[in-house]
Amino acid sequence: MSKQIMIGIREQVELVENSHFGSQKQPKAFDKNFTHGGFVFTHEGTIDGDQMNFSVHFNDGIKNEIGLNVTWRFEWDGKPSSRCREESIRKTIEIEAEDASIGAKFSLPLSEIISMADGKSLILRAVINIHHTNGLKGPLKRFDISNSDCSDCIVQVEEELFYVSKSYLLSQCPKLYYKTLPDRLKVYRVHPTIFQDFLEVLHAVPGAIMEHNIGHILSFAFFCGAQTVLDKCEDYLLNTESNVTLREKLNHSNDYRLEKLQDTLINQVFDVEYLDFFLYEKVLRSQNYSLVMKVSNRIDVLRGEPQCCFRQFPSLPSRR
């Protein structure tokens, strides 16, 4: 089953410049690199005779399997055209790093591009979604059999085996859901890739937390009570420049009870309407009552109302 990893980055290029003299300008070739989720993509447009070829490539030095979806949209003066092209691809890299690239591509006649522009500027947007990965980041620390000399326990996650210290793992994860087998522990409710990332954070491996995996790491850490990992993820969200939005951070702070992050973010929100939505649709439903007061007091400040210690909220059914 595929899983959504990174969504919705929009990389744009001005394909045809606006003409002020009535003459139609020709499309321009381009070659742009950009970063999404810590990984480098190349967006390229080349002219070959009377055709223009477009491509988005993911470049990485590790052999990976990746599911990539790219939708190209043409817009002029901020209005989308009827021309929309979508490509999906899923391949496994089996070539050397210097040539390793996978992606999506399509072609259009130059005459059709000029017709779409109709003397105006023409913007091409590439909306990129990565919905499946296997080995995208690559292991930063190995927990396979090569680590057996430093371990006293084998952990099985689906069909993969991890060699770890049993006492350290269980002391750090008091709520870990596992089954004891004769020669190993079998851990449930986590994907092997996420468990690998989780172990790297648990063992303080630099660079283990990234934009595309922090939500999964937080979810599993919260599930198994790994406070050390939760703290490290919270520090990442507080101190690292990233493309994780303020609203995504707020949702993480509520879902996983990250109080330092809550205290920092609440005063950065000035949208009362959004805070109302966040309070009633997110915070109250998760029964996070300490955050209820922080959000409601922030709403009062923005509305210029006196803060109060008691507020009437609609009752919600208790969770069973």
UniProtKB/TrEMBL annotation:
InterPro entries: BTB-MATH_domain_protein, BTB/POZ_dom, SKP1/BTB/POZ_sf. Residues 151-241 form the BTB domain. Transmembrane segments: none annotated. Pfam families: BTB. This is BTB domain-containing protein. It comes from Caenorhabditis nigoni. The gene is Cnig_chr_I.g2970.
